[in-house]
Amino acid sequence: MLTPVLLSSHPEYVGAARTLYEESFPESERVPFEALIRSCTMDGRFYVFTEGKEVKAMAALAVGKTIMSLVYFAVVPEARNHGAGSELLRWVLSKREGRRLFIDAEDPEPGAPADDIRVRRLGFYQRNGFTSCGFVSEWNGGRYQIWSAGGLITKEEHDAFWEKVKLA
Question: Where does the N-acetyltransferase domain lie (predicted)?
Answer without folding.
Answer: 4-168
